[in-house]
Amino acid sequence: MKKIIKTSNAPAPIGPYNQAVLSGNMLFVSGQIAINPKTGNLEIDDLAAETKLVMENLKAILSEAGLTFDDVIKTSIFISDMNNFAKINEVYGTYFNAETAPARETVEVANLPKFVNVEISAIAVKN
C-alpha cells in the first residue's frame, strides 16, 4: 500500500505526480528544483543558493515523512552543465556524512524543468 507525502514546506508538484510516495518502509522523493515554497518563485541566479534550496526542499519532504538525510540510500542528480558539478557537489556534500552518504549518480542532461541548473531526487528507507 502506498501513502502520498505532501508538505507546504516544499514546492507543490508542477505536473501529474506527488512530492513523495511511501511504500512500505521505502520513501521515493520526486526530483526537486529550486522553487521557493513560500513564494512559488524560481531561485536560480546563484548556483550554490539554487542547490541549497533544492536540498532544503528535499529535507522538508523527508521531514514530513519522519525521515532525515541519514535515511537516504540513493540520490539522482541531474545537471544542465557538467562544469557546475564541483559547486553543486560542494553544497550537496554538506547534507551528508561522507562515510554514510547514499549511493548516487550525476547525469548531465540537455534541459531540466523550467530550465533550472540542477534537479535532485532521493530514495530513503524508514527504519
From TrEMBL:
Lineage: Bacteria, Pseudomonadati, Bacteroidota, Flavobacteriia, Flavobacteriales
One Pfam family per UniProt: Ribonuc_L-PSP
InterPro entries reported in the protein's UniProt record: RidA, RutC-like_sf, YjgF/YER057c/UK114
The protein, known as: RidA family protein
Organism: Autumnicola lenta
Family of this protein: Belongs to the RutC family.
Coiled-coil residue windows: none
Spans traversing the lipid bilayer: none
